[in-house]
Every structure is written in structure tokens, then in C-alpha cells.
Amino acid sequence: MRVLCILILSFSLSGCFIIKDFGAYWDSGTIDGNLSGKWVSENDKGKVINFIPTDTHIAQKGTDNIMKTLELGEHKFMMLVSNNSKGNIGQRNQKKKSVNMLVNYEVKGDKFIIYSFNQKLYKKVQSQLGEESSEIKKGKISAVSVNNLTKEVVDGLSDIVKDRKYWIEFTVFKKVKS
User: Fold this and answer.
1) What percent of the residues of the chain are helix, what percent strand, and what percent coil, each to the nearest 5?
2) What stretches in the chain show pLDDT beneath 50?
3) Are the beta carbons of 87 and 78 closer than 8 angstroms?
4) 3-state per-residue secondary structure call for 28-94
5) Three-class SS state of 109
6) The whole model's pTM is what?
7) Domain ranges of the chain
């Protein structure tokens, strides 16, 4: 099932970050065991995602999506690689049209919450990320594209994520008890 990928791709033009190369941050990413299991969307009834932790990453059941977590203090970003291919983890695969995204999220009890950045503050978000970033715009919706996840970009994200006025709850999933 490609629910998360479709959700995130539609989300990609409403406040996540499209990343060409996660660089060394992919290797230092963690596996958030709190994501493990089956989740049902509260916003879009019937949408289900299932995360399975492995030794090296978290896989989304029924897809070729993999992810790791980038922790910035108490805040977390999902480093998502869709259309993953072996030997190209964390870098966009031009042949398979893979997409790498960085998505702000948190797990609170039995809730998995994905956040979008506030579009009213888009220009400030982009300016905080430095020269590596550029705008992707579709109508009134903007997203930030970043070539390389560098220390400058991560430092900018660290500042942005601390101020919750930048973030809007985008979608909420509830954990299905097994």
C-alpha cells in the first residue's frame, strides 16, 4: 500500500522538504521504534500505513519506502526515501524517479502526527535554510527543495522546529492495537 507515499507526495507541496541528498545524515539517522506497527488515518478514514523496523531502517509495508529519523533536540524529522533502490539509499535515484523528503513528525501515545510548515511563514523558513534551498511553488502552495542536507540546513531546521508557530498539524494517525 502506498498510502504514506501518496500522502507525503501530496504533502510535499504543502510544507515538507524535498531533499536531493541526505548525505552523512542518513547514516547517522535513527530508527524510531515508536513508529512500529499499523496506523489508521483520523483525517482520511480507511487510509492505513504499517511501519516495520529493520536493523538499518524502517520499511513501509507494501511499498519500497524506507525511512530513518533525524532528531533535532526533542523534535523529529522523518527522512523518507520513496522508490528506494539498493545502493542508492539516501540519494535521489534518477532512473527510478525516487523522492527524498524530510517531514516533521511526532508520536504522542497512540497518535502519529505529521506537521506542515505554516505557509504564511514560508519565506522565513526558506531563508533560515541558507543557499542550499529553493522554492517549489504550485498555485498558492510552496515547498522547500534542498540539494544537500548540510550542517547549515540542519542548523536552520533546528531553529525553525523550536518555534511551533512555524508548524501546523497536517494529518493524524491512530495506532491500531494488535
Assistant:
1) 25, 45, 30
2) 1-13, 85-95
3) no
4) HCECCHHHCEEEEECCCCCCEEEEEECCCCEEECCCCCEEEEEEECCEEEEEEEECCCCCCCCECCC
5) coil
6) 0.79
7) 3-175
